[in-house]
Amino acid sequence: MIRRTQTIYVTLDPFLSLRGTVLHHFDQFLAGLEEAEFPCIWMTSLTRAQLDEPRRRLGHNGPFIGESGCGVYLPEDYFHLKSGNTIRLGRFTCIPIAKPQPAAAEALEELSSDLGISAVSLRSLSPRELSQNTGLPPSEAEQIRMRDFDELFFFAGASESNIAKFTDEAALRGLSLQNLGAFWSLSCGADFAKCIRELGGLYDRALRAHAFRVGVATSPLADTALAIRSDPRLKSVAASCDRTLLLTERQRTSDSESPPKGDGDQSNAAMAGVGPPSARAHDEQNSFYLHSPDVWEEVLAAILSRK
Fold first, then answer.
1. What is the DSSP letter of 148?
2. Of 60, 69, 91, 233, which has the maximum CB count within 10 A?
3. 153 DSSP β-pair partners
């Protein structure tokens, strides 16, 4: 039962390896949210097959946003209210944001052929090749390509200029292209912000009040505004949540890291730590050092304070 009015949207991938190992003591944060009875929504590039075991092990029974913002996955009977547009995928009711497969697979093949740039989809690899490219045992590697919406691929011998050309053309065709590190994701319409708004609307209806949305994300940058501008996924979270808490790989050492006041809008300037003391204080309340031994206690305290 949903009892509280805060919902926590967490970018999961930095806290869970492909082998399912919990990183940065993320389980401590989950335990704290469970005690506070705050729903925790995972946002991830992983598939529902990849999440089955971690969800059982970590006791996660809530909704999640899968395949890099392609859809909202709702456990059976989680909400009595229904969204207007849903499909059934395995044990989940899904609100699709992107077009289901094979739309992305066909779009990737067409885009690669039209540009003459080789893009190798994971779906096209043999089991042995898939295991070699992912570094996972065959059974776990197979879960990566069991995708409902997006298509994972890698460039074969493409130059930086060709990749930039590919990226530009994907945008012109209305495709969502995301760099996931080892692989790229292409989909027909993935959007984390839309996912958050769709799910947030269901929470609002269930509670008959606005469910305050808190985004929790990580960045290698210490400057909050710069991190948001440089990461489209983080930008989506910040735009669709009422508050965004950023866990940084680096500690802020001085305000010299912040961009000029004229660069970006006022809200970004405030989050960057530039401007009046009140703006810098706001930034400090919403930014945390990921490698601090007390980071999760600090984040939970910030959530509970709801400042």
1. S
2. 69
3. 121, 184
pLDDT in tens, 234-284: 999 999 999 999 999 988 665 534 444 444 444 443 343 444 555 555 567
Q: What token pair was written down for 302?
A: 């910030």
Residue 120 in 3-state DSSP?
A: strand
Number of domains making up the chain: 2
- Rounded (10°) CA dihedral 148, 149, 154, 160: -170
The tokens describing 118, both together, are 């080789």
Domain range enclosing 216: 6-97+191-305
The pTM of the full predicted model, rounded to 2 decimals, is 0.88
CA-CA distances (angstroms) from residue 130 to 47, 177, 179?
16, 21, 19
Q: Degrees (nearest 5) of the Cα angle 12, 17, 18?
A: 105
What gap in Å lies between CA 239 and CA 230, rounded to an integer? Answer: 14
Enter the tokens of residue 25. Answer: 């003591």
